[in-house]
Design brief:
The structure holds four protein chains of four kinds.
Chain A lengths: L3 H19 L6 H24 L4 E4 L14 E4 L1 H24 L6 H19 L4 H19 L5 H32 L4 H8 L9 H15 L8 H7 L2 H27 L4 H23 L4 H29 L3 H36 L10 H4 L1 H15 L5 H15 L3 H27 L15 H16 L8 H14 L3 H7 L2
Antiparallel strand pairs in A: 1-2
Chain B lengths: L5 H23 L8 H19 L3 H31 L24 H31 L1
Helix pairs in contact in B: 1-2, 2-4, 3-4
Chain C lengths: L1 H19 L3 H23 L21 H32 L13
Helix pairs in contact in C: 1-2, 2-3
Classes of the chains: A mainly alpha, B mainly alpha, C mainly alpha, D mainly alpha.
């Protein structure tokens, strides 16, 4: 049992409590401790990324061994897929905290900000590294409640309203999930994901868990803001402070939404075609409608938030195609390709959407506005922000040397190979509209003539913000390397294998 | 916030102490009888809330207490976390290990580490709920000023 | 079986309230009702006919106890519910101070 | 037993319907409290004394906070005439309810009837649990020992909510 696994949760929790105890006595303690905590976590997660490979590491909390091969304690599980998400969480988290050092300085009560940030990270790490469905619920609540509070951090009208909306829909999702857990417990009398898989048996009469499937899909769909359940996302993501928007859009909807949906529907439920088609349809709808809603926006952060819905649609659609093929039991290699494309796009989206929100924060920090019509000519006064946002915009629109291109290409190729020509065409069209939308963003924000009025002097943002943006833009470039053979096998393939080999996860964990 | 009448104040003075003692009883016997850290903690918080409602207090004193209760809360959580990690630090390297000897079932000192968890979670819950309540009251006072 | 149906109907009443009500406090109440039905559901699942409460008397051990696991889960969920309600109430009181209204139609700065 | 609980649950449904339809917010909150206290009776009948204790105290605290908020803001729900959006939300609500009802009907037939559950994971929590955890109260044993990690999370949720309340209750957000 690897003692690093519980540390993923223990370190940020200890950090949060220590900030609340000592923060008021020591100056700058909050910033330093939060950065150190996140740096440590990032190092640990990269250790997992490079050392996990095909292995599944299980940590039995409390040392409770299985009795008659039925797990009785809570299991923490780290496998290839988990390791990737852990890296995303903790790396983007570290960069956001570092960015916040300057950004949050203008707010009051910074202690609360850093403590809640650490708690949010602890919650997400807990969700991702858990192998027990009720445990997922508990840590989901930690991350959700801290994000509700962080959205309202500015305590202005807008933030409070967005936070209320987010809380109501989040609470609805939580109780749907809890009810579904009760339903699963009623049938299987166990809570361990691997053991639920065993207890449900393979295929056959699946009447009894369709209710749980529907409720879990609705609940986690609400958390992930898939299309019919997206109402809270544009408000919450645009009202929050920018580092938090980067975390919410870049990480939270993936870690507590998409990740859990993928994990549960691949490794816990037996894949069936109706559910797979439903998931693909939801993904396609989000992809198409999200981008059309985005194109009319003039508020930068709302524009980015709608693009998040659209890009998450790509991921869900691609994974759904994989599920359809797997449920039919045909063309396993195409299914693998589709799932790979989805996961790759998930990683890429974390990088470029995090970067774009940090850019938006930098623009807001310097100019004091989020309205595209009031900006212009910023390329001269803010060269670094301009350059990094250019990289991110090209990435998200899928222009060749950048990472977004490769993941979208894989998704489209997989859709064509699976004979879903309509979906492939839609993915291409949406990509073009995304490009148009981001050209508008670039033109109005950075290159257009600035409107003639007495301007206050606009300067480039301070070093911590620049550092985070530059690092993320380098990551955007480096991530395209993942597609090449040799690197792909060590990072992407283990993650795909654990998902596309349906019983590997449960047989390994039950067999311990 | 103003206090209430003398009758209420005197009765509260009598009752609050008893409620507090009952909360402690529920916490300490958590591993033997129904109840435990959560129930006992909320009961203890109830006695404080009763006192605050009956007596009212001036605003500055409340502000001080709010930071104090947050402190208690986080200290208790640190202790809980430390108890959880203590298993990891000992020779066995197991998170959440109940490593203290179990004793006889049914005795007050038994069940190893569980009573300690109960006590500190109880303190944490009591401090949390009092803090929430104080935050609401202080907000009201500050706005009405 | 009827009791499960009634419990589920209680859940749906809460769901209906969350979707259709326009008053902030009413929405919070509807969420509480969903919460109650979920707790009841867990307790129902754990019950076994003729079982006794899961507290062992060492002198006189009984054979059949009700399932302690759902009870532990509900214990966890009750406290989570308290936390959610407290935060929701804090936001509601702030919103009332800012807008002077609890009606969701008058609180619409954000749209689109 | 099933009949007694069914009656109380029916009562809870009526209380819930009153709570979401009452015009006076204070009576709505009180009705919600009554539903919560009825749940305590259900817990007692279902042999869950731990839950009954926690629910009764938590419900009291929740009720105090809710009543305080209602008294602090407005007591009347604004008069709502059914406009177009009102019809739309009502229809959405009914459609969602029908969908869930349909899937529940499919699922429920092949599940265990009331009071005849078997044990799988919980078997080890009862069999010889007193030797394993040393706790006479099996629920405490599960909460703090077998599933202690969940409890750590739960206590953290409460701390998070407190920090959230303190964050939201700041008078000024920006310096």
């Amino acid at each position: 049992m690897n003692p690093l696994i519980p540390l993923l949760v223990v370190i940020p929790l200890a950090g949060a409590f220590l900030i609340m105890i000592l923060g008021r006595f020591i100056r700058n303690f909050n910033k330093i401790l939060a950065s150190v905590v996140l740096l440590l976590l990032a190092i640990i997660s990269f250790y997992f990324l490079f050392n996990t490979g095909d292995k599944i590491s299980v940590y039995k909390v409390g040392g409770w061994e299985a009795v008659n091969s039925i797990p009785i304690g809570i299991y923490m599980v780290v496998d290839g897929f988990t390791a990737i998400i852990l890296c995303i969480i903790n790396l983007i988290g570290f960069l956001s905290v570092f960015y916040s050092i300057s950004y949050i300085a203008k707010y009051t009560s910074e202690d609360f900000f850093y403590a809640l940030f650490c708690l949010m990270i602890a919650g997400m790490n807990g969700v991702v590294a858990s192998g027990d469905i009720f445990n997922i619920f508990v840590f989901l609540e930690i991350s959700s409640i801290s994000s509700y509070a962080l959205v309202a951090f500015g305590v202005e009208k807008q933030q409070l309203e967005a936070s209320f909306k987010y809380q109501v829909l989040g609470g609805l999702a939580s109780f749907l999930i809890l009810f579904a857990i009760g339903f699963l417990y009623w049938r299987t009398k166990t809570l361990n994901i691997a053991d639920i898989r065993t207890a449900l048996g393979s295929g056959g009469d699946r009447k009894f868990y369709i209710m749980a499937e529907i409720m879990l899909l609705t609940g986690f769909g609400l958390k992930a803001a898939i299309m019919p359940f997206h109402a809270w996302l544009p408000d919450a993501h645009s009202s929050a402070p920018s580092p938090i928007s980067a975390m919410l859009s870049g990480v939270l909807i993936k870690a507590v939404g998409i990740y859990v949906i993928i994990r549960l529907f691949f490794n816990m439920f037996v894949i069936n075609e109706e559910m797979a088609v439903l998931i693909t349809a939801l993904g396609t709808i989000s992809m198409v409608i999200g981008v059309f809603l985005a194109i009319g926006q003039w508020d930068i952060k709302r524009l980015l938030a709608y693009h998040s819905i659209s890009q998450m649609g790509y991921v869900v659609m691609s994974v759904g195609i994989g599920m359809i093929l797997m449920s039919r039991g045909i063309r396993h290699e195409v299914a693998t390709l589709a799932v790979t494309g989805g996961i790759f796009h998930l990683i890429n989206h974390a990088a470029f959407k995090g970067l774009l929100f940090l850019n938006a924060g930098a623009i807001e920090y310097s100019t004091g506005t989020r309205d595209l019509k009031e900006m212009g000519g910023l390329a001269k006064s803010m060269p670094v922000t301009s350059a990094t946002s250019f990289v991110a915009s090209l990435s998200i629109s899928g222009i060749p040397p950048f990472n977004g291109f490769f993941s979208k290409l894989i998704i489209i190729i997989a859709a064509v190979m699976a004979h879903f020509y309509l979906l492939a065409a839609l993915a291409g069209i949406v990509s073009i509209i995304t490009l148009a939308s981001f050209l508008k963003f670039q033109r109005y924000a950075f290159y257009n003539k600035e409107p003639d009025k007495e301007k206050k002097e606009i300067r480039e943002v301070p070093f911590p913000m620049l550092f985070s943006m530059i690092v993320l833009s380098i990551i955007c470039l480096l991530l395209s390397l993942l597609v090449f053979p040799g690197i792909r096998e060590t990072i992407l393939t283990p993650a795909t294998d654990i998902l596309t080999d349906p019983s590997k996860y449960s047989t390994y964990i039950i067999g311990l | 916030m103003k206090g209430m009448t003398t009758i209420v104040k005197q009765t509260t003075k009598l009752i609050a102490g008893m409620i507090f003692m009952y909360g402690i009883y529920v916490i300490v016997h958590g591993h033997l009888t129904p109840g435990g850290g959560f129930a006992g903690g909320v009961i203890m918080a109830g006695s404080f809330i009763l006192l605050i409602l009956a007596y009212g207090s001036d605003f500055l004193k409340l502000l001080k207490e709010e930071s104090g209760t947050t402190m208690y809360e986080n200290l208790a959580m640190i202790v809980v976390l430390f108890l959880a990690v203590s298993g990891l630090l000992l020779g066995t390297h197991v998170f959440f290990l109940n490593w203290i000897p179990k004793g006889t079932v049914g005795h007050l000192v038994s069940a190893g580490i569980l009573p300690l968890y109960n006590i500190f979670v109880g303190i944490e819950v009591a401090a949390s709920i009092v803090t929430i309540f104080l935050a609401l009251i202080i907000f009201k006072e500050e706005v009405s000023k | 079986m009827i009791v499960y149906w009634l419990c589920f109907i209680l859940f749906l009443v809460g769901l209906y309230g969350v979707i259709t009500r326009r008053n902030l406090i009413k929405i919070a109440i509807s969420l509480s009702i969903m919460e109650f039905s979920t707790f009841l559901f867990f307790a129902l699942v754990g019950y076994s006919e003729g079982g006794v409460a899961p507290i062992v008397d060492p002198a006189d051990p009984v054979k059949l106890y009700v399932d302690p696991l759902p009870q532990a889960l509900v214990l966890t969920a009750i406290v989570i519910g308290l936390a959610t309600t407290a935060l929701l109430m804090a936001v509601i009181i702030r919103i009332y101070r800012k807008y002077g209204s609890l009606d969701i139609r008058e609180i619409k700065n954000l749209r689109g | 037993m099933e009949i007694a609980i069914s009656v109380i649950t029916g009562f809870m449904i009526i209380g819930a319907l009153y709570a979401i339809h009452a015009r006076d917010l204070l009576s709505a909150v009180i009705a919600c409290g009554i539903v919560g206290y009825s749940l305590v009776i259900c817990f007692l009948l279902l042999k869950a004394p731990d839950l009954a204790i926690v629910q009764i105290v938590v419900e009291t605290i929740t009720l105090i906070i809710m009543v305080a908020v209602v008294l602090d803001s407005s007591r009347e729900e604004a008069f709502t005439k059914l406009d177009r959006q009102g019809y739309f939300t009502a229809i959405t609500g009914i459609v969602i309810i029908v969908v869930f009802f349909y899937f529940m009907k499919i699922s429920v037939a092949s599940l265990d009837p009331f009071g005849e559950g078997t044990l799988r994971m919980a078997h080890s929590y009862i069999e010889g649990a007193t030797e394993k955890t040393g706790s006479a109260n099996l629920v405490t044993g599960v909460v703090f020992d077998f599933r202690g990690y969940d409890t750590l999370g739960e206590a953290t949720v409460l701390v998070t909510a407190v920090l959230g309340v303190l964050t939201i209750m700041r008078i000024k957000g920006k310096k």
